[in-house]
Amino acid sequence: MFNGFSHSVKGASHEVSKLPCQDSSSYKVCERYAVAVVADGHGSKKHFRSNLGSKFAVEATIEAVDRFYEDAEAFEDALPKYNKMILRNMEKQIISNWNMKVFDHLKANPVTAEEKSKFTDEEFEAIPPESYYGTTLIAAVTSKDFTFGVQIGDGTLVAIFDDGKAVMPMEYNEAAPANVTASMCNSNAAGMFSSFFTSGKKLIALFASTDGLYTSFGSEYDFLDYHTIITGQLTNLESFKNVVINNLTKRSHFGTEDDISLSCVFNEELLAANTELITKAIEDNKKQAAERKAAMLRRNTND
Q1: Which domains does the chain have, with CATH numbers?
Q2: Helix orientation angle between 237-254 and 220-233, rounded to the nearest 10 degrees
Q3: Which residue from 54, 143, 205, 274 could staple onto 39, CB 3.0 to 4.6 Å apart?
Q4: What residues pair up with 150 in beta bridges, in sequence order?
Q5: Which of 201, 228, 227 is nearest to 214 (CA)?
Q6: SS3 state at 39
Q7: Cα angle value 145/148/151 (rounded, 5°)
Q8: Is the dihedral of CA 40, 221, 271, 77 positive or negative?
């Protein structure tokens, strides 16, 4: 019923600076549910292990979802009624899982002299150990009857339901209030999540991506149209993988030069049943894009 894909590419800026890719991505498909997840390590000076932090965030999320699904029938029965409370508990579980992974890694791999050498003793002492691993997180889960997602930090979720329209269930969020970066490493991280829940809609495809993808487009219209186009290509997954990996690589080198991750899960049966709908949506989007371009040219001419 479900299938999926995930991939992360290193941005040109990190290749020049010889930094590792700070992004991580993964997906998991089961009989009852599917999970798409990406994470974007901060990569700044004090977050010098954020490439590992993003990896731990992805793992922590899938483990948390699996744990909530241990009693699948009870979970699916309770979620529509108590989704806000349950998602808050899931967010706390994700943070707890992540912190355990971070401190287990730090215990087994103490900070090296080379890592410390970039700081004065005073600067280093002021950094909370979990900050070494700072990262964002975007994850989404779908089942037969509902779809939900959780997010801390920037990045995007895009859903395509059986009306063929690409939508962002949560608004693109560049920063938390007061310009504080929302991060898994924050002491109040559990209170910095955004979430969404929807039921009664049949989901065709669900995408999570780090901010390097969103910022490589000129507009939100173009970004959403892109997801409609690639949804149409999911019917041939192997071909889709090659095309999308090449496109992500190009965008990471000639767009914002940032790392880019994309993870998706989709309902194979619904996709096969709605290929004409997706094809029509792609054509409609092309017409609307042309109309927007013509309107912009007219405005520029009048100015």
Answers
A1: 2-302 (3.60.40.10)
A2: 150
A3: 54
A4: 139, 195
A5: 227
A6: strand
A7: 170
A8: positive
Residue 152 β-bridge partners: 137
From the list 20, 52, 77, the residue with the least C-alpha distance to 185 is: 52
Q: Which of helix, strand or coil describes residue 210?
A: coil
Q: Taken in order 42, 46, 51, 52, is the CA torsion positive or negative? A: negative
Tokens found for residue 48: 């010098």
Strand order, beta sheet including 156-161: 2-9, 260-267, 203-209, 156-161, 166-167
pLDDT digits (tens, 9 = 90+) for 127-171: 999 999 999 999 999 998 999 999 999 999 999 999 999 999 986
Q: Where are the alpha helices (DSSP H) in the chain?
A: 12-17, 50-68, 72-108, 113-116, 121-125, 211-214, 220-233, 237-254, 268-273, 275-302
Are 104 and 66 within 8 A, CB to CB?
no
Please tell me whether residue 246 adopts helix, strand or coil conformation: helix
Task: Quote the Cα angle for 105-109-113, to 5°.
Answer: 140
Residues composing the chain? 303
Coil, strand or helix: which one is 89?
helix
Instruction: Please tell me whether residue 186 adopts helix, strand or coil conformation.
Output: coil
User: What does 90-107 look like in DSSP terms, one character per residue?
Assistant: HHHHHHHHHHHHHHHHHH
Sign of CA dihedral 111, 133, 22, 219: negative
